[in-house]
Amino acid sequence: MAAVRLICGVDEAGRGPLAGPVCAAAVVFQPGRRAPAGIADSKVLSSRERERLSILIKDRALAWAIAWASVEEIDSLNILGASLLAMRRAVETLSVLPHEVLFDGSHCPMLAVPARAIVDGDAKVRVIAAASILAKTARDAEMCRLHGQFPQYGFDAHKGYPTPQHLRALRRYGVCEVYRRSFRPVRLLLENGR
Hints:
The protein has 8 helices and 5 strands. By secondary structure, it is an alpha/beta fold.
């Protein structure tokens, strides 16, 4: 009988926002067990559907992990480097060692196991889509938590993305410690003494 191969899917959430950490998730489904129905790229699902699926994914996965790279790491490494760091941390936190890791995108972090990057993997590979759902729900929850500390910025609504209302709040209230200082809109405000 052929040995069972454990395939891990990895994705991140939060590369584009001006504030907050970047989040990555890794998922390994139980071989031979059906994955929950409805799993898709987190970007095409409603927040309610993502929340529902994240519970099912965590319940049915053989293993899953969520990891982060901080605002300070984003500013020192750049957002790509920080995203790769968070993804590597997620894989290294898993309770099982996968035989292969599939990453969404065009880059792979250095790992001790074989890895492949798949462009649009979150739309093509179910286990990567599952990771995208866990990463997105975890990051959204973190931005809602930060909203409790800094309600003036409206993080619960825009999750740190540079929407017009967010940029207005940023100009009005200035830069607090959860902002990514290397990102252009934030850097320009700081250069102008805000």
